[in-house]
Amino acid sequence: MKNTFKEKLKTVLLKMRALRLRQWMLPQSVVIIAYHSVATDWQKQAGYINRGITTDADRFNEQMRILRNEYNPVTLDEIAEWMRGTKLLPKRSVAVTFDDGFADNYYVAAPIMERYDIRGTIYLTVDAVQRRELPWFCRTAFLFQQAAAKKIVLLDPETGRTWNLGNPDENREAFIYYIYPCAKLVGGELWSYIDKLETLFNFRLDQSDISGMMTFEQARELRKRGHNIGNHTISHCNLAHIPQELLYQEIAGANEILERELGEPVGHFSYPHPCLNPQWNDATVIETEKLNYKTATLTSFGLVTQRSLPLLLPRIMISNQDNKEFRWKLETALAGIQT
Ligand SMILES: [Zn+2]
Prior knowledge:
Elements: H1 2-16, H2 18-25, E1 29-35, E2 37-39, H3 42-49, E3 54-56, H4 57-70, E4 72-74, H5 76-84, E5 93-98, H6 103-115, E6 121-124, H7 126-131, H8 136-149, E7 153-155, E8 162-164, H9 168-179, H10 187-201, H11 216-224, E9 228-231, H12 244-262, E10 268-270, H13 282-290, E11 295-297, E12 304-305, E13 316-317, H14 323-334
Parallel strand pairs: 1-5, 1-13, 2-3, 4-5, 5-6, 6-9, 10-11
Antiparallel strand pairs: 1-12, 7-8
Helix pairs in contact: 4-6, 8-9, 8-10, 12-13
């Protein structure tokens, strides 16, 4: 009942353009939206990548059509220039970004964007791209999703504790117990932790039949077609929670590989946020400053104004929203309201 009322209210507010009044009262601001995977077979893809970060291709097409017709799609390069005061941007400007580097960004999302003359920024998780394997957080989300459906009871050999993973509360508790430590690991240590976890669960994600990560060759081609390729670290760790001596490798090390593969400087960075808060600290900002990035984006909500810090830009997370919900997200965001 309450939900129906809320939905009706949203429809009325969108029709009345009530949020526009508040938008006019704010200093000019732009929105950066963030996607992950865009799938033609949503059901299948959401099963192994995670439904919260998978967008159906038809819905994505609708969202890009709305962006082109009702907003002003811009690139992160244009936003960087606008922030420096060397470029004007139209009102209601929106930039499109993609975290992680899934192959479907190349096969599905980019052709749809190009249909509407929109160019995006795709941030690559370097290790996953090099190994041609889905990042660790997909492998672990798959374990817990499947274990919930199969109602698996898990015995932790070290503590003797058991978890009934069919129970949502226990599944969540176990997820925090096993997965939060991953965000603090990098490289070989991380992969052996994930291998051990898959052994404990006694099954693993079979990646032979799924669309995984894009290749560097595809990234180069997207670059030629006007899209930007950005850095999303080597291991997809939470940078604010790893030892400081590993920061250089995760940020500058990834940058070096990307520069070599792309044959040009990398202009943009995105902070991974697999879990744990915060996702950045002073030391991480210093590392991105050293590499002269034009922008670095976060997963936290917010509008970008000319007074925002270019290396700590908030974004609006988008996934499988229908047209009304997508418009609602953008209109409320432009009005500075988090939904
Ligand atoms: Zn990510």
